[in-house]
Recover the amino acids of this structure.
């Protein structure tokens, strides 16, 4: 039998670990299994240190990419074991890599990866480097998930917004009139500022269930100041990363408000994430009826409560309500992009990324 399975590997800006899924796309999209491998602290720190300029970056990048790919290979092995799928049944792995620079204005983006090694370790064809082809055509190279969101969640009953709350938050606007183009963009920070502030003040990697944020109060003046950042006003297409939304960004804003206690800052950052998602949605698609959330932000009840309050009367639910586990959506998108590559179909949406046209995204590293 002809192989039909595609594997997607996604490790995002949160630097938490890698999500892996096995999918088929014909006759319809189906996820056959999921696994997650967390990065250990040493790998996370090595990756983190490459997010900004530093000594001997080229050599460190080469070494860390090898380490990273060993974790990817472990995720693939684990996934195959769990799902009882043989490597021979897998057409290809679509692997995003780990973004260490995203500079659309300068025309480049860098995802740390070693797809040749991944092909060698798994014995499966690997498709990698999805973003640069879109950028070469003048696009932002991001977000790339909207095309998949449209394929999976597009519908004719209601105007929907799919929100992926990873490190950065991106939205996909799906009009019920499916003849209209799908729009989407990075609307701002997702969890990244929450994680950074938590790490600096509480020593934990993230604020589990928003417990710490819950102890604070929203500071309206600080929120207004956060919201005045020009990124939020800038028209789409736009994409962002930790080059922009980072500790310096928070500190710059806090300069004027040195007396606000850290828990209140955390609570205000949660509100900022929710507010920018809802504002960006209603500006781009005023008659949105339903928000569906995926990515790790869905597990933060404080954030979800803020989203519900601000989005009302529209509903806010997890993509689980649509039958898709919220932690699998992004990895599924990269399996889908591999499927598009193999079938010589475009993976980008020019209306989203501003590329000159549809392009086949990715490059193939054959297993043999
Ligand atoms: N139980 C939880 N409570 C609060 N936040 C959570 C929880 N689980 C995950 N998160 C958040 O989700 C992030 C990971 O989300 P993810 O979608 O994997 O992002 P990325 O795509 O950037 O890797 C974590 O860093 C954390 O901020
Ligand atoms: Mg992640």
């Amino acid at each position: 039998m002809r192989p039909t399975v595609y594997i997607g590997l996604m490790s995002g800006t949160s630097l938490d670990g890698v999500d892996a899924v096995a999918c088929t796309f014909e006759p319809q999209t189906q996820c056959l299994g999921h696994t997650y491998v967390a990065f250990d602290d040493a790998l996370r720190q090595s990756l983190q240190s490459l997010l900004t300029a530093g000594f001997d970056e080229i050599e460190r990048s080469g070494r860390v990419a090898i380490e990273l790919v060993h974790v990817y290979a472990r995720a693939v092995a684990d996934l195959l074991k769990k799902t009882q799928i043989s490597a021979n049944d897998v057409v290809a792995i679509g692997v995003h890599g780990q973004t260490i620079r995203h500079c659309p204005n300068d025309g480049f983006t860098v995802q740390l990866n070693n797809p040749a090694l991944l092909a060698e370790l798994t014995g499966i064809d690997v498709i990698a480097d999805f973003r640069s082809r879109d950028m070469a055509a003048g696009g932002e190279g991001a977000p790339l998930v909207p095309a998949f969101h449209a394929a999976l969640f597009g519908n004719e009953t209601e105007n929907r917004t799919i929100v992926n709350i990873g490190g950065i938050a991106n939205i996909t606007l799906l009009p019920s009139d499916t003849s209209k183009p799908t729009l989407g963009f990075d609307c701002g920070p997702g969890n990244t500022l929450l994680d950074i502030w938590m790490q600096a003040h509480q020593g934990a990697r993230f604020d589990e269930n928003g417990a710490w944020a819950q102890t604070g109060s929203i500071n309206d003046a600080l929120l207004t100041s956060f919201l005045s950042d020009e990124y939020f006003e800038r028209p789409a297409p736009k994409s962002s990363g930790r080059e922009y939304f980072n500790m310096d960004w928070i500190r710059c804003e806090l300069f004027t408000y040195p007396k606000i206690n850290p828990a209140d800052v955390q609570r205000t950052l949660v509100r900022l994430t929710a507010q920018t998602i809802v504002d960006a949605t209603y500006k781009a698609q005023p008659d949105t009826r339903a928000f569906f959330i995926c990515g790790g932000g869905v597990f933060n009840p404080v954030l979800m409560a803020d989203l519900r309050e601000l989005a009302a009367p529209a509903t806010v639910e997890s993509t689980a309500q649509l039958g898709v586990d919220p932690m699998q959506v992004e990895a599924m998108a990269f399996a889908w992009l591999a499927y598009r590559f193999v079938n010589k179909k475009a993976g980008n949406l020019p209306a989203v990324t501003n590329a000159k046209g549809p392009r086949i995204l990715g490059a193939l590293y054959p297993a043999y």
